Structures are given as C-alpha cells and as structure tokens.
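Reply to dn_fold:

You asked what the input looked like. This is it:
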Amino acid sequence: MNGATPPYDEELNPVLEKASREELSVLHDILMGKLSETLSIEDAYKAHYPDHEKYPDLIAKEIRDFGGNSIANVFRGEGPPYREIVWDVAKAIKAPFRRESPVEEIEASILATILSKAFERMSDDEKEVLLEQIGRPDRSAVAPGSVQVFLAIFKAGGFGSYRLMLIVVNAVVKGVIGRGLPLAANAALARAMGVVTGPVGWAVTTMLTVIRIAGPSYKVTIPSVAYVAMLRKMQDTLHCGCGAVISIGFRFCPECGEEIRERSPQPLAG
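and this is what came back:
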C-alpha cells in the first residue's frame, strides 16, 4: 500500500484521527510484533515514527486487515469494514447485539460482557468494592451473568460508567501487550483499579487464551475494538480537570465545584 491512500472507514478513521500520539501508541503496540503486520513497511510509518498521529489511516487499515484474518475473508482486496470486525468480536465473546445497532452500542455490549464474565470470578469483597466505586452498592442487584445490568451502566454515562470502561479496557490491553493504559491522574480511579484490576485481568487473560486457540487474530481485534470503544467514549464526553465526567448542560462540576468552561475529551496522560 506504499504511496496509495488507505481505504477510509467512517466508523473507525474519525476516532483515530482525533487521538493523540500517546493514545495511538497503545494501538501501535497491539499491532506490532505480529508476524503478519505490514504497518512497519509503509513509507509514512518509516518517515514519521513514533509520531503516530501522522498516520492514523495506516493504523486503521492495519486493524481492518487483521479483522479480515479473523473473519477469514480473503476476497475483498482490503480488510472488512470496522463494523463487521465489531460484530465478529461480539460473536467470539458471546456478547448480545443486533447488527443494525449503532457501532458504539455493540462496543458497549462487548465491554459489558467482558466485565460480566470477570464479575462472576470476583470474591464478595472485590464485588462490593467495584459496585461501590460505580455507585451500585447493592450487590444483590447484580446477579452472575448480568450483562444487561453492566450494559445499562455503560449506557447511562457518568463517572461510574467511565471507571468501569477504564478498568475493563486496561485489563484487556494489559493482557495483550503486558502494560496497562497511561491513565490520567485521578486518585479515586487509581484506587478502584488497584482493587479490582486483578480479578478482571485474570478473567480477560483466560478468555483471550481460549479465543486465540480458535483464531490468533483475535489477539489483535479484541483489544483493538475495546480500545477504540474507549477512545470513542472519551472523545464524546465532557470532563472536569479533577477527572469527573460531567453531563452535558451542567455549568459546574458536581465533584469539585469548578466551572465547566469547554467540552473536551480527557486525555490519557503518562
């Protein structure tokens, strides 16, 4: 593809185009090291690495190419649309979804399914800590296998939903590349992740191991979809400097009282 314009995907490229160099570095590390990767031979990559924000189209193309390997479609001449990759990941982990749903809803179902599987393996103390952190102290309301409960929390938004998303995606990414997300400084979020990341990580690692037996490309597509879901959510969310997630229309942060001056995503800071 050297010199040619990579195919554009309306549900993937815009998210990567808004991401920072550091945010894209996680996707870069997920993709690299695989025998079938082709990103490193691209002219733009050779000219600009490690400025990943200068070639988000190539990263998008690489994700789609790996998606083609997992879907086993070799007749297109290019990777499948991102939406089909999301469908494929949802089917692989048995996440409920409808094909006609917006892609962000299917992404949320994937994250909720991963968390539900992890929740089943947590101790009672770990469950209580997790539910307290997301504002759901009644553990009896979240029965084993409650994908719909966690999905409702993701859809509701707010800081609890944001914490859940980061916990899940951090575990997925760490299970694949050996390091977690470069999280923005937030003491409450760090405490939550410190307590429950272990059980979530164990469940995710087990799931990825089983799925990789069926198709090695899932080692790329599952973490890529989870991470893109997180970037999409961050780019469409209003954040205060204290880390709290603010509902649209609020003038002041309910956590620290600071006036909200602009709508902007929360960056991943090293």
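The first helix runs from residue 13 to 18.
Hope that clears it up.
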